[in-house]
Specification:
Layout: H1 2-13, E1 39-44, E2 48-50, E3 57-60, E4 71-76, E5 86-101, E6 109-123
Antiparallel strand pairs: 1-4, 2-3, 3-5, 5-6
Organism: Phlebotomus papatasi (Sandfly)
Protein name: Spaetzle domain-containing protein
């Protein structure tokens, strides 16, 4: 019951009633987005990156078809959030790859390189630290 009331309030906030055509009939408005930022999945076999340990550029070893280091990643499709006023920002996660440092060095080793992992919504009017309320004595 509590969830239905919250759903009804949320739908009302969006300007839809639970009897609206976008409603799916169970007290939920079906037109609401599941996520705040629209994203799409993609796959790639990256050839270059920046080492998280050294900060230096590295070549990611790709030797088709024997050694193909593929990643599935999620990228932002929009710069604006749905429902909340804010900005969609790309997030990254470290992946462990077999790499060769750029330059005359031919040593092969494993290293972490950042790869896109998703999107987060950063509200436009959020502040970094909570503000103290003005208290008048």
């Amino acid at each position: 019951m509590y969830l239905i009331v919250l759903s009804h309030l949320f739908c009302t906030y969006l300007g839809r009633s639970v009897n609206h055509p976008a409603s799916n009939g169970d007290g939920q408005c079906g037109g609401t987005p599941a996520r705040l930022c629209k994203t799409r999945y993609n796959t790639t076999a990256p050839m270059y990156g920046v080492s998280l340990t050294s900060g230096q550029p590295v070549t990611i070893v790709q030797k088709f078809p024997d050694l193909l280091q593929q990643v599935v990643f999620e990228v932002c499709e929009s710069s604006e959030c749905d429902v909340v006023r804010g900005e969609c920002t790309q997030t990254y996660v470290p992946y462990l790859f077999l790499v060769i440092p750029l330059g005359p060095v031919t040593l092969t080793g494993q290293d972490y390189v950042l790869v896109e992992s998703g999107c987060v919504c950063k509200p436009k009017y959020a502040t970094g630290a909570p503000q103290e309320p003005n208290i008048i004595p």
